[in-house]
Write a structure and sequence with these properties.
Blueprint (H helix, E strand, L loop, with lengths): L6 H4 L4 E3 L12 H11 L5 E3 L8 H14 L2 H12 L16
Parallel strand pairs: 1-2
Amino acid sequence: MPRKGGPGITGSDLLVVNKVDLAGAVGADLGVMERDAGRMRDGGPVVFAVVKEGKAVGDIVGLILSAWRSCGAAEVSGKRWKREGRKGSGMVGGGEGGGT
């Protein structure tokens, strides 16, 4: 619950509220959660998702990649890939190519 304001809520770069499809079953009000998250995070990014069904996954990935690029890590990785070659496929979960 965002209103509790723990360090994961207030200090994280991105707050993902997953399994929002279950909110009604557990008595959670997504409108209240959105309001509280906005207040506790001072406008920091919050994504409401159902990851298992792919809902909002693109938003999550987009925010992560944006942060990766803006901090300069993409440039560092690109230089290393040119120098050493890419390792694995880049796939998550150990798919073909030995990704992590």
